[in-house]
Amino acid sequence: MRPSALTATAGALGLAVLALTLSPATAHAAAPVPLADAVAALPVAGESREGYDRSLFPHWTDQDRDGCNTRMEVLIAEATTAPEADERCRLTGGEWQSYYDDRVHTEARGLDIDHMVPLAEAWDSGASEWTTERRRAYANDLDEEVALVAVTAGENRAKADKDPAQWLPPSEAALCRYVTEWTTVKTRWSLSVDQAEADVLATTAAECPDAVVDTVPAA
Predict the structure, then answer these.
(1) What is the pTM assigned to this prediction?
(2) Residue 114 CA from chain centroid, whole number
């Protein structure tokens, strides 16, 4: 099943910002960093979708071989009322709240599992240089609880592969959470941002003074 988020040890802010820039091999954990500082630490670079294909990110795998693939693991973990799962991990019952639009669902089929940073956006931002194995790990990242989120299917499809300069959740109450989670995933996987994306993240972060990014670099 999906583990809880890892909690990093608090430390000096300067060291925390430095830890964000270290490679996964050298930075085992990062202290919580104010959202605005985490946004400022993201590298800004141009983007290219040349060569992208969704199949280059093998996803919805059953990593622990318990019969539930990544989609089902997220649905089970994020249910506000737990569903029942049969031997093939088919879910019945349960309740979910999609924070993008503050809508409650009682049927799993009404939900999509959104990659917080879409696969195509990840490709544009650095994943084009990764191995297939690393792209598989990214597409099925259950170790960072904000990397995958169960949301209303229509909202996920409206978002598609857009970054925050092109799409934000319709619920105003969701904006700080969304930008924090987007920045968390970009930080965790050492992905870049383009200038328009960086500008929107910075503007939104300025309105979220209590938000922090707390993640462990991906292995």
Answers:
(1) 0.86
(2) 8
